[in-house]
Amino acid sequence: MSINIDAVGYECEPYENSWDERDVMLYALGVGASTSELEFTTENSIGVDLSVLPTFAVIASGRPPTSLWTRIGQFDPAMLLHGEQYVEIHSNLPTAATAVSRTKVTGIYDKGSGALVVTETVTKDKGSGVDLFTLKSSAFIRGEGGFGGERGGPIKAVELPPRDPDLVITYETAFDQALIYRLSGDRNPLHSDPGFAELAGFERPILHGLCTYGFTARALLNEVCDGDVGRFGLISGRFVSPVYPGDLLSVSIWEESEGALFRTETQGGEIVLDMGVFRFRS
């Protein structure tokens, strides 16, 4: 097994992904939207136009070609964990489109116990050429550290204000939440197969980190943006602990002039999404 630090700066060939109304509604259901959010979950309600949840961007970008990870090196995929996720929206996402994306390796860091690989994806609408969104993501590969690389990283610590949060929004995840979310593309059996989850050290299948991310984004959209997708600009955060389907997710929000800071916890007070930053679209 080895990590190729020379992969930093590598950009894969452009790749395409298409979606339609069914895909955006299925994603919305997967991150907990329901009858109170018909603008995201139905396409034929009287007086309601279908809109797209901003964090659908993590689905809309599609998957980069395997050449990207081949260039990064050889490692056991089971040792890869999603570390951080950043989504910046440039234009409201269309309910149906074909997008063209490019993904670049922007950093590889030696964390001792593992390697932190950071990528950036820029996505445009194929038909119009309009910039849709930019994604930045970090993946921690356990057991692949110690190669002598830079030990830093791209995410700076976020210090929360020394006061109670201005808002605390709590959502309940369903016991079958992961089974719904996986239909948007991530079929990792860690989220569906009890036997596989047990082998990975969990008592039962866990929820996708990006599903927790979507629940959190809904809270920010509904409460900080008053449900207006046009005000939703940027969301970033660090995944800390797993969530089990059926858990409660409480999003603590500290409002600021340019957006908000946030943190998401389970009913037991365990932090699951930290270092949260939200910004309005400029």
Describe the structure.
The protein has 282 residues and is α+β, with helices and mostly antiparallel strands. It folds into two domains: 2-142, Thiol Ester Dehydrase, Chain A (Roll); 167-280, Thiol Ester Dehydrase, Chain A, CATH 3.10.129. Helix content is 18%, strand content 35%. The protein is built from seven helices and twelve strands. The strands form two sheets. The protein has a ten-stranded antiparallel β-sheet with strand order 2-5-6-7-4-9-12-11-10-8. A two-stranded antiparallel ribbon has the order 1-3. A hairpin with a 3-residue loop joins strand 5 (97-110) and strand 6.
Summarize the entry for a quick read.
With 282 residues, the chain is an alpha+beta fold. Helix content is 18%, strand content 35%. The longest helix is centred in the C-terminal third of the chain and has 15 residues.
Topology of this protein?
Blueprint lengths: L1 E2 L11 E5 L1 H10 L7 H4 L15 H4 L6 H6 E2 L5 E10 L7 E14 L3 E12 L5 E12 L24 E6 L4 H5 L12 H6 L9 H15 L8 E8 L8 E9 L2 E8 L4 E10 L2
Antiparallel strand pairs: 1-3, 2-5, 4-7, 4-9, 5-6, 6-7, 8-10, 9-12, 10-11, 11-12
